[in-house]
Amino acid sequence: MSVLDGLNPIVKQKALELLAACTTHGIEIQIIQGFRSIVEQNKLYEQGRSTTGNIVTNAKGGESYHNYGLAFDFVPLIHGVANWKDARNFFVVGEIAEKIGLVWGGRWKLRDLDHCQYTFGLTIADLKAGKMPNIQK
């Protein structure tokens, strides 16, 4: 099973485009998370609040684009090893992601450097109300 399984087909294609574009620029990345269930999201939300660890998200279950298959997380690799410490690589990948039409979390007030999403113009409220992306976009 691939980490890209569960993503909307267009979002999956965008993730593959990002992998290829980064390779073209001499950057290796790994997609580390795609679709996330409500249960998984709630566990992440509780981290640093009611369970041990650092706070890693402000989104409860149902409030993340991951929960709808419209988001994925990545990490740059250096010699095949995840490199979380060098933010410059996240910025380069983020700029590449934006060029292929993804929204990159590194531009947000509360930065999420490893996050990309493709929302089809839908808000979380739209998704919670049952609206689905038009996959023709």
CATH topology: the name is Muramoyl-pentapeptide Carboxypeptidase, domain 2
Q: Give the averaged pLDDT, no decimals.
A: 95
Number of domains: 1
The shape is globular
- CATH class, named Alpha Beta
Structural class: alpha+beta
Tell me about the largest β-sheet: 5 strands, antiparallel
Please tally the β strands and state the result: 5
How would you characterize this protein structure?
The protein is of the alpha+beta class and 137 residues long. The protein has a single domain (9-128), classed as Muramoyl-pentapeptide Carboxypeptidase, domain 2 (2-Layer Sandwich), CATH 3.30.1380.10. Helix content is 31%, strand content 15%. It has helices at 9-24, 38-46, 87-99, 124-128; strands at residues 28-33, 71-78, 81-82, 103-104, 115-117. Strands 1, 2, 3, 4 and 5 form a 5-stranded antiparallel beta sheet that branches. A hairpin with a 2-residue loop joins β2 (71-78) and β3 (81-82). The model has no long low-confidence stretch (mean pLDDT 95).
